[in-house]
Amino acid sequence: MASENADSLVISNDPLHPANLIPELCRSFYHLGWVTGTGGGICIRAGDKVYIAPSGVQKERIEPTHIFVLPYPQVEPSPHTDRVFLRRPALNLKESACTPLFWNSFDLRNAGSCIHTHSQHAVMATLLWDGPVFKISHQMIKGVRIAGTGAALSYLDTLEVPIIENTPNEEDLKDSMAEAMVKYPNAAGVLVRRHGVYVWGLDWEKAKTQTECLDYLFEISVKMKLAGLPTLLNAD
Amino acid sequence: MASENADSLVISNDPLHPANLIPELCRSFYHLGWVTGTGGGICIRAGDKVYIAPSGVQKERIEPTHIFVLPYPQVEPSPHTDRVFLRRPALNLKESACTPLFWNSFDLRNAGSCIHTHSQHAVMATLLWDGPVFKISHQMIKGVRIAGTGAALSYLDTLEVPIIENTPNEEDLKDSMAEAMVKYPNAAGVLVRRHGVYVWGLDWEKAKTQTECLDYLFEISVKMKLAGLPTLLNAD
Amino acid sequence: MASENADSLVISNDPLHPANLIPELCRSFYHLGWVTGTGGGICIRAGDKVYIAPSGVQKERIEPTHIFVLPYPQVEPSPHTDRVFLRRPALNLKESACTPLFWNSFDLRNAGSCIHTHSQHAVMATLLWDGPVFKISHQMIKGVRIAGTGAALSYLDTLEVPIIENTPNEEDLKDSMAEAMVKYPNAAGVLVRRHGVYVWGLDWEKAKTQTECLDYLFEISVKMKLAGLPTLLNAD
Amino acid sequence: MASENADSLVISNDPLHPANLIPELCRSFYHLGWVTGTGGGICIRAGDKVYIAPSGVQKERIEPTHIFVLPYPQVEPSPHTDRVFLRRPALNLKESACTPLFWNSFDLRNAGSCIHTHSQHAVMATLLWDGPVFKISHQMIKGVRIAGTGAALSYLDTLEVPIIENTPNEEDLKDSMAEAMVKYPNAAGVLVRRHGVYVWGLDWEKAKTQTECLDYLFEISVKMKLAGLPTLLNAD
Question: Catalytic activity, per the record (chains A, B, C, D) (predicted)?
Answer without folding.
Answer: 5-(methylsulfanyl)-D-ribulose 1-phosphate = 5-methylsulfanyl-2,3-dioxopentyl phosphate + H2O
